[in-house]
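Reviewer 2 asked us to include a model.

Predict the structure of this chain.
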Amino acid sequence: MAKRQDIYQNDLLKLIQECTNFEDFSHLKRWEDSELKIKDAKEAVQELRSQTKDYFETIEVLKKAEQAREKNQTIIKESINYQQKLDELKTKFIEIAINENHQARGHQLEKFLIELFIFFDLDPKSSFKIVGEQIDGAFTFDNTEYLLEAKWQKSPINAQDLYGFAGKIQGKFKSTCGLYVSLSGYSEDSTKVDGPSIKALILIDGSCLIEVLEGRIKLNDMLCKTKTCCADWRNILSCDRA
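Predicted model (structure tokens):
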């Protein structure tokens, strides 16, 4: 093995390391002059231990450094992939925003929201239904089912729109909540509405999506932050005020 270290070097190092860890010499008691043999064996192991201590400590340090390097590389790679995907989604969102064809824009927005929810593991349920520029769908967040209403129109969403969406939620399970996405924002009167069904809604607007797409906050964290404010409805005007 010593002559073919190109093949057996790792085995030799393991053998040496195991020898340095050896502490039980009771098997030598059966031999003549057992006390002397045990004494010599202990001294030999101690000498080997002292000779190889620095080497194995260095190897361990290098091993930990390599593991840390690999971990950092994985984190960097995941971070780059995460940012690349966000950049792709942001580019798609901008393309949708400048599209003057409302029907095509509706289809693009449908695909965009599906990609966005999948990217953040929100488990979108079935494909979204489009009527004009309205997108209806569902997803799961924090073990709660959410209905989705998304609108892209010239005027801000008013109180009547919110009450209409809240009515849809009332017909579902008691634990069902709603996410309203308005790329045109919300009117002042919509911030004054009240009621149990209204408090089950989370509101976000176009600026919220931009924050997510620019990596300033994850969509899951935004929903969690906004959901926490549901006890005080008037705090939920948009993600900027949540």
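The beta strands are 125-131, 134-141, 144-151, 177-182, 201-205. The chain has two domains: 1-98, 103-241. We have added this to the supplementary material.
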